Amino acid sequence: MKSGGKKAFYIVFGAAVIVLALALGAYRVFNNETVRQFTAMDTLIGVSITGRESAEAAGEVENLIKALDKDVYSRHSATSALSAINRDGKGELPEECSEALELMRSVAAKSGGAFDFTLGAVSDLWGFGTGKESVPDEAALKKALEKSGFEKVKTDGTSVTIPHGMILDMGAAAKGAALDRIRSELGGYSVKRAVISLGGSILLYGKGEFRVGIQTPGSAGGEYFALLTLPETNVSTSGSYERYFEKDGVRYHHILDPGTGYPARSGLVSVTVVSPSGALTDILSTACFVLGAEKGAQLCKEFGCEAVFLDENNGVTVTPGIADIIEITDENYRLR
Ligand code: AMP
Ligand code: MG
Fold first, then answer.
1. Is 285 in the pocket of ligand 1 (CB under 6 A)?
2. How far is the CA of 170 from the centre of ligand 1 (A)?
3. Given Cys at both, which of 5, 50, 139, 146 links 30, Cβ 3.0 to 4.6 Å?
4. Which ligand 1 atom lies nearest to the CA of residue 243?
5. Distances (CA, A) of 238 to 52, 103, 125, 192, 217
6. Are 43 and 56 within 8 A, CB to CB?
7. How much is the pTM?
8. 202 phi/psi in degrees, rounded to 5
9. What are the Cα distances from residue 53, in Å, to 23, 26, 62?
10. What would the pLDDT profile of 229-266 be if each residue is shown by its tens digit?
11. Which residues face 227 on adjacent strands?
């Protein structure tokens, strides 16, 4: 594999995994490198940048992520633009955020509603990530579902109006949208390469190749079942093992079927999407998880993205652009 002598690999899924790559010294081949880890956007974040201004750029990236979380996307920060809309029923979004919202609307429509960014009231009933998870009762779920529906969201430029009781949730897109902003900010610094991981969404920046591992579901130690060899781009993975709880022997995960309000069951365990648009990788990985491999691949084609689908039987399906750049590295998994 050719990478101009600058070989390193990274494992997608999450910061927990990229931390491992760092601990192994994967980055030490570079000069002028800056590595940071912190928590924001409800996830662990890994920043690794090389180049003369890597320290300055890393500082900027950290500040930017924290500001986007607190001021724009967070549903838990009372001062975010999204919280204000959810509270008041209307409000303004920063331009880049309203662009992400339009992209979400487009994917929502093209996915036949499998992707829906208005399920906040439904998600809240389940309580994923709050430590107070529980299986909602049917009546409450039905009521919350009636409050959702992306077609009811009205936008006019950057202003947004939602019906009473609806709660917008940009959790499926915020990390990817933030990566697009980070990419444009990095252009203002003298940096050679950067890998920024926001949970399951990763930005690859700079010349040469990047080797990205796709996490083995449920593995804590950063094991991966496949490696992708990629130029600079974005990669996002959505998986049922990322956020879940178990009750009476049943596992409930955080990606919901808007038709039922229950965790989506499409036979998939994870979907990884690759695209020059970070927002699209994030949105489509979630959408494809709900749709399943066949319809998901069709949706990716419509948006010019590539994807890797992992099913419950350890079978791996890929879109045509992935076939030559994937290597299955675990004998328990096989390409279909
Ligand atoms: P991701 O980890 O990017 O796949 O996003 C998962 C998050 O998206 C969840 O935690 C919810 O906030 C939100 N979400 C869950 N189900 C859906 C859905 N069907 N459509 C859009 N967003 C969803
Ligand atoms: Mg997503």
1. yes
2. 8
3. 50
4. 10
5. 34, 18, 21, 28, 11
6. no
7. 0.92
8. -130, 135
9. 22, 20, 14
10. 999 999 999 999 888 999 999 999 999 999 999 999 99
11. 213, 327
